[in-house]
User: Fold this.
Amino acid sequence: MNPHNIVVLPGDGVGPEVTREAVKILQSIADAFDARFEFSEYPIGGVAMDSTGSPLPDNTLTACREADAVLLGAIGGPKWSDPTAAVRPEQGLLGLRHNLGLYANIRPVRLSPALLASSPLRPEFVEGTDLIVVRELTGGIYFGPRQEPSDNGVAFDTLVYSKVEIERIAHIAFQLAQSRRGLVTSIDKANVLASGRLWRQTVTEVAKDYSDVCLEHQLVDSAAMHLLRRAASFDVMLTPNMFGDILSDEASMLTGSLGMLPSASLGEGSRGVYEPIHGSAPDIAGQGIANPIGTILSTAMLLRHSLGMSAEAEVVERAVDDVLEAGYRTSDLAEPGESSIGTAEMGDLIATHIRSAAQRGA
Assistant:
């Protein structure tokens, strides 16, 4: 059996720390289930700018194109935070998505029962939360025509969508809903934006191909409110690029910490880029206290979507739940006065549970 080729892009800040634990988890899967993985590391983001002058060096992009899957840590930090700079770390991530044709960002938001008390919201508002944000990733306001601030004090970013872009992301959302609870909530601003009206019209047309899925439309401001009041009522949220960026970060706090949530960026075919939704957290980088669970759960998505290893992905997800149920917490999840464990310790515990599950025949 040929090994699965996994490119690791540790990136900046806590990125190297959390990806190290994700690799540890994949190695435990290899040990427990007779799988084979081949890992190679390449720079991206700020560290790549420092070493090569580019946030996405050519050899990094080439390696990603040849990989079965890509595991990414985080990019950016205060050292490279000048928004007026011609070259910025974020360009590496945007370039990677563009060059690999990754137009769909999948962000599951599931509240582990063990973390019900960790949510900043009252338990009755968040209990049962289990939703997926399907975010269009390569269109919208981040990619439309723009003008940087000029001498006369004017700048603009243009929100542009085509029907084709909306159709392809809508199909992914409806297909996901078919395997879940059968509800797609499409998010737009159709009462104000022309692009929002195209979004709503197009999603409504696509829905006709999925008679087993219910479609509802919500304005983005209404959706932001309902996420805080009745999160468990959502199943699959289909969003334009910017709205998905904001709403998925809001939704992450339902689970108790930004460090809990994974994501997958997908296009045509099986290759994807897998990363936690959190940033580089430079304030805690190097301290060994970052929460690696979002990155570890991203490896579960990697196993499922890129490698076709759904059973192994479920073992990873159950191991995370088991460790949390046993009371272990990183500092971002710990209650005041409650003891916590570090990044490596959390990775070790989850890896141990994976090996134990394999021995039990799970």
User: Anything to note?
Assistant: The longest strand covers residues 4-11. The chain has a mean pLDDT of 94. Residues 15-33 form the longest helix (19 residues).
